[in-house]
């Protein structure tokens, strides 16, 4: 082993009780004990730049969230079968950020549960079970949602009703990605019809975070039109792009000029306190909930609602949407500058504080997974934390808390330039 004895012992003890499912990031795993804003601190007090975690959207250990949660937890934390004013107040506030036709909200705890419920609602409303999904998507880990999460590998649950369509690859399908995507979605719908299943839902993470991060505007409109024409519903999975990350809207679907029938929320919604939601048109939502009971014990409790309310407060008070736009642009400009002298960087793209960087074999558009992994590990050795995504595992995924600052950008770009220079 290459690590110090205490780290080795912890890794071993962890594996003994948690087993092989609990993967660790990096060749040299990081042992964190504290976080603040966009910075993390390890057991030796070393400071890291968090350029990866989106759950703490408003920053690690934000005092406003801590205070709201502490107050709620030390006052009352029951479930939704009792009257409580805060859930009504928050729901109104949340719905006010959405297009007017989306007027119902149902709370759960995880993004997986939200997507699971959205699928059930779509099935109920349309009478059709078919789902069209992108080819390397991740939408969660329940039995039903695993079936629509190809990035997990082959699902261990039935997928006869699922059709996979490659995401619009704006790097390799220059100018034609959206049209090709729509054509493939039409073919998938026809295939579901031919199989006697029919399309109930088309679900998209509108920044394609698992597929490889494709952030051009207007990529999904034509495909959504085809789904609507066939009587299917469009589910916008906002677990990744939602809550101001794109820097131009609270929601990622906004940049595609589309109207979702169902919107699913999660991750940053409670800044780490588990809370998620399905937002829908009432006619769609009620077609399910009028007949079928849905109760989620910890979904929408006073504590989780307090966290979610504090998150909206902080996004507004600290102008985090504007920050995401400005700092995200500065970050990509800095990375592009490094890319100019680094032939293994094929593309730098993103919106707000969601950035993807293609690591390729020089002179080609072929993804180089090994080089991407090396780069991620060399950055970790320089206390800068990111990860990778995409079909070929070669796209750097840079997705910091929304409080990322211009000095964080400088820190990132200095280490990024150095790491690139030491690889090739
Ligand atoms: N949808 C998307 C787009 C996600 O990225 C994730 C989590 N990575 C989920 C759904 C599932 O959320 P959770 O892990 O909270 O179940």
From TrEMBL:
- Pfam families attached to this UniProt entry: Aminotran_3 (PF00202)
Question: What PROSITE patterns would the database entry show?
Answer: AA_TRANSFER_CLASS_3 (PS00600)
> Which SUPFAM superfamilies does this entry report, sorted A to Z?
PLP-dependent transferases
Domain of life per record: Bacteria
InterPro entries per record = Aminotrans_3, Aminotrans_3_PPA_site, PyrdxlP-dep_Trfase, PyrdxlP-dep_Trfase_major, PyrdxlP-dep_Trfase_small
Q: Does the keyword Transferase apply?
A: yes
Please indicate if the UniProt record lists Hydrolase as a keyword: no
Keywords of the record: Aminotransferase, Pyridoxal phosphate, Transferase
GO MF annotations in UniProt: pyridoxal phosphate binding; transaminase activity
Family listed: Belongs to the class-III pyridoxal-phosphate-dependent aminotransferase family.
- The protein here is known as 4-aminobutyrate aminotransferase
């Amino acid at each position: 082993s290459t690590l110090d004895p205490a780290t080795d012992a912890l890794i071993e003890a962890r594996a003994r009780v948690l087993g092989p499912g609990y993967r660790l990031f990096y060749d040299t795993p990081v042992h964190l004990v504290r976080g603040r804003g966009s910075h993390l601190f390890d057991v030796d007090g070393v400071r890291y730049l968090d350029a990866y975690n989106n759950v703490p959207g408003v920053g690690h250990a934000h005092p406003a969230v801590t205070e709201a949660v502490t107050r709620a937890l030390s006052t009352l934390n029951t479930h939704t079968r009792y009257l409580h004013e805060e859930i009504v107040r928050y729901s109104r506030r949340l719905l006010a950020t959405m297009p007017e036709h989306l007027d119902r909200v149902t709370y759960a705890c995880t993004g997986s549960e939200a997507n699971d419920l959205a699928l059930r609602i779509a099935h109920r409303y349309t009478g059709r079970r078919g789902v069209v999904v992108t080819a390397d998507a991740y939408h969660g880990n329940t039995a039903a949602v695993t079936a629509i999460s190809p990035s997990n590998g082959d699902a261990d649950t039935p997928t006869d009703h699922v059709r996979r369509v490659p995401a619009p690859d704006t790097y390799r399908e220059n100018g034609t990605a959206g049209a090709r995507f729509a054509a493939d979605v039409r073919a998938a719908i026809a295939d579901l019809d031919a199989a006697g299943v029919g399309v109930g839902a088309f679900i998209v993470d509108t920044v394609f975070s698992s597929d490889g991060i494709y952030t051009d505007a207007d990529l999904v409109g034509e495909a959504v039109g085809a789904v609507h024409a066939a009587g299917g519903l469009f589910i916008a999975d906002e677990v990744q792009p939602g809550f101001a990350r794109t820097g131009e809207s609270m929601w990622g679907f906004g940049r595609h000029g589309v109207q979702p029938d169902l919107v699913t929320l999660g991750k940053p919604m409670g800044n780490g306190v588990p809370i998620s939601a399905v937002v829908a048109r009432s006619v769609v939502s009620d077609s399910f909930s009028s007949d079928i009971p849905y109760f989620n014990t910890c979904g929408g409790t006073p504590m989780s609602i307090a966290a979610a309310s504090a998150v909206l407060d902080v996004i507004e008070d600290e102008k985090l949407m504007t920050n995401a736009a400005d700092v995200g642009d500065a970050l990509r400009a800095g990375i592009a500058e490094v890319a100019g002298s680094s032939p293994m960087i094929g593309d730098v793209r993103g919106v707000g504080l969601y950035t993807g960087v293609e690591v390729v074999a020089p002179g080609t558009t072929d993804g180089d997974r090994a080089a991407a992994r090396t780069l991620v590990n060399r950055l970790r050795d320089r206390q800068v934390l990111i990860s990778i995504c995409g079909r070929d595992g070669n796209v750097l995924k840079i997705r910091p808390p929304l409080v990322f600052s211009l000095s964080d950008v400088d820190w990132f770009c200095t280490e990024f330039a150095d790491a690139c220079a030491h690889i090739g």
